[in-house]
Amino acid sequence: MANLTLAQIRLQLDQVASEYDARFAGQSRVSRDLNDLNGLVRRTQQAPSGPREAPEV
Question: Is the entire prediction scored with pTM above 0.90?
């Protein structure tokens, strides 16, 4: 995986949030497409969460 900056990670997550807002905000939960929701969840889970190991000094 490429080393992403904090700004790039934030951009990826902001894009997912914007897509959620555009497609689902204000909608009845019953009307939401689970496949679409699962895709957004997958994209969020794939975003890096920070260093996997302690940095070398």
Answer: no
